[in-house]
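Worked problem 6 (solution included).
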Amino acid sequence: MEDHVGEHEKNRETESVIEKIAEKVHGDDSSSSDSEDEKGIKSKADAVKTKIYRLLGRERPVHKVLGGGKSADIFLWRDKKISAGVLGVATTIWVLFELLEYHLLTLVSHILIFALTILFPWSNVSAFIKKAPPKIPEVIIPEDVVLGVASALGIELNSALAILRDIACGRDLKKFLAVVASLWVLSVLGSCCNSLTLFYICFVLLHTVPVLYEIYEDQVDAFAEKAEAEFKKQYAVFNVKVLSKIPKGSLKDKKLA
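Solution. The predicted structure is:
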């Protein structure tokens, strides 16, 4: 009897061990299937993200498009005090030079005269009145900042010259039409206002358009997608009715003749 009970207990132990192993195997299968499902969901989500239209084919965030760093923080109003201060300084300069008709050399001269008129007597009188002289900070422009600005300007100028060269070689008709239209708009703006006002308008746009686009990104991208589709449609019609009817190769034939 005791032997029978012992065998029964051993059978129960082996069955429990088998059940645990089976549960573990099923658990691993379920976890692997869950992980596969999660991977499938993530892949689908990534595919959906890649299908989302972004303005001008943008793949990076607006902050990265603007170059990142402090300049992008200023344009996107990450620090409202600094952004407002920069915009306020630009507005003050525009008011002085445009509305009050101040000249740059006159303004700089008056500011230096005012500062020296205060600091020079203060530095000399401080020894007699037994007070500390004014602490005038030593202003040194870092060399790497100057080189960085010059390098950035050089890169932008070189890219602009490369684009103009490609257009002049007749490689891209769309780019040619876009650049001509942009230059025409700039010529109209230049006839309406001077360079300082145009620069100030661009500066204000840089402080308003990117941050508004970042807030209403989805709505703007949806509207831009519809506008681009309509532009492609109209360009296809223009290509069929006008561009396709322009004779090609006639000049080469004349030269050969």
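Discussion: Residues 1-8, 28-34, 44-50, 250-257 have pLDDT under 50 and may be disordered.
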